[in-house]
Design brief:
The chain has 416 residues and is mainly alpha-helical. The chain has 20 helices and three strands.
């Protein structure tokens, strides 16, 4: 009796193995014809026999399942994720090459889809696709960085914070080597996508003087984003804690000092913001943007003389600094408010009339003092509507009809 029972079990297992192979074979045929629904039907039948499959058959099943879910890139996002998960269950080395090739297809699909979503400003979905691309190929950490960045753009702060924290724990810097050479045609430095392409160009004689350069580290930007997200979430202590950690590891990093300065600015700590900017300026005295920002904070603190000094420093370092020219003009014109206030307080006596005329002359002088900076802004940026509009108003107020018409026409053409 026991022998009969064993024989029945053996026959049952034998039939199961035959059924498994039949369903997997059917799935393979349907996948070749892109009949994904028929392939799924065969795989569902095979799944019922999963407990009796050997390792090789299970791996083949999961490979076919991934392909049927992916549908050659026509699947929705959830099915693409399931297709990725199925690949993780492939353990048999017989399918290593095929599963790797399929994984690369999924990876490329996710990256391409994310790029298209980014172009349409669909940042949250873009972030999801970039993160999934990273999960598929974790050696490509840059896509986790892109995922965190686009999640921030979508204001999905909890998600972006989690990814930035992961990048920090991974020690991700994003530093890349770039390859350059001088073009013999125009004597300009040209970048190449790879060392091989650069070296071929040099060898062929079209380029010379090959050089390698490293890109800046993205670590300061990651810490900055962590800090700013904590501020958005109302956790200023965590924000400053993030900066303290970053600066302890890189005490001479100017970018980190600027990041901490921005944190204090967001928190309303203007004095600390200014203090850190001044430290950064001492470390990088040729940085025009630092001088400009010191000008901005000085202007906000009603420190006219220092604001003007810093804006002029920025222009000296960067002669085409349009915003510095505009801010200088604004700084000068802002003094008009105090003059108006005094004019409105005057009475009708002869002394008040004389005082009124003097204030009016002072106001007119402000206009004349602002003109050179605004015209310089137009010179550096001919399409600057703000500068053109302000100049037309000033020339109207000072009675210069010809110049008024000139800049009004320019402002109108820019606005159109």
């Amino acid at each position: 009796m026991n022998k009969y029972f064993v024989l029945v079990i053996a026959l049952t297992l034998g039939f199961s193995a035959i059924a498994q192979k039949k369903e997997l074979k059917t799935a393979a045929k349907e996948l070749k014809k892109n009949n994904f629904e028929a392939a799924v039907t065969a795989l569902d039948a095979a799944e019922a026999l999963m407990s009796q499959m050997d390792d090789k058959s299970k791996s083949q099943y999961y490979l076919f399942k991934s392909k049927s879910l992916f549908k050659n890139g026509k699947a929705n996002f959830n099915d693409v994720k399931k297709a990725t998960e199925a690949l993780e269950s492939i353990t048999n080395s017989s399918f290593k090459q095929e599963s790797t090739a399929h994984k690369q297809l999924i990876f490329a699909h996710l990256v391409n889809k994310a790029s298209k979503l980014y172009e349409k400003d669909k940042f949250l979905k873009c972030s999801e696709h970039f993160e999934s691309a990273y999960r598929v190929s974790q050696k490509d950490t840059v896509y986790l960085y892109y995922a965190a960045s686009t999640a921030t753009s979508a204001k999905a702060y909890d998600q972006s914070l989690s990814m930035y924290e992961e990048l920090k724990s991974l020690g991700y810097t994003g530093i890349e080597k770039q390859y350059f050479a001088i073009s013999k045609e125009d004597q300009k430095e040209e970048s190449f996508g790879s060392k091989v392409l650069r070296d071929v160009s040099v060898k062929s004689g079209t380029h010379s003087s090959p050089t390698d350069k490293l890109t800046d580290s993205k670590f300061p930007e990651i810490i900055k984003q962590i800090a700013l997200i904590y501020i958005e979430l109302g956790n200023n202590d965590k924000a400053l804690e993030a900066m303290k950690l970053a600066r302890s590891e890189n005490p001479d990093n100017v970018n980190l000092i600027l990041t901490e300065a921005n944190v204090h600015y967001k928190m309303g700590n203007l004095e600390k913001f200014k203090e850190l900017l001044e430290i950064a300026t001492e470390m990088d005295p040729s940085n025009a943007d630092l001088q400009f920002n010191l000008g901005v904070i000085s202007a906000q603190s009603d420190d006219f003389l220092n604001a003007k000094k810093y804006y002029l420093n920025a222009i000296e370092l960067k002669p085409d600094y349009t915003n510095a020219f505009i801010n200088l003009a604004v700084l000068i014109l802002d003094q008009e408010k105090a003059i108006f206030s005094q004019m409105n307080e005057l009475g009708t006596s002869a002394a008040d009339d004389r005082k009124y005329d003097q204030l009016k002359a002072d106001r007119n002088q402000l206009y004349l003092d602002a003109i050179p900076y605004l015209e310089k802004a137009i010179e550096t940026d001919p399409a600057n509507f703000q500068a053109a509009k302000t100049l037309s108003n000033i020339y109207s107020a000072t009675g210069n009809t010809e110049k008024y018409k000139e800049y009004k026409a320019l402002a109108d053409s820019i606005e159109e």
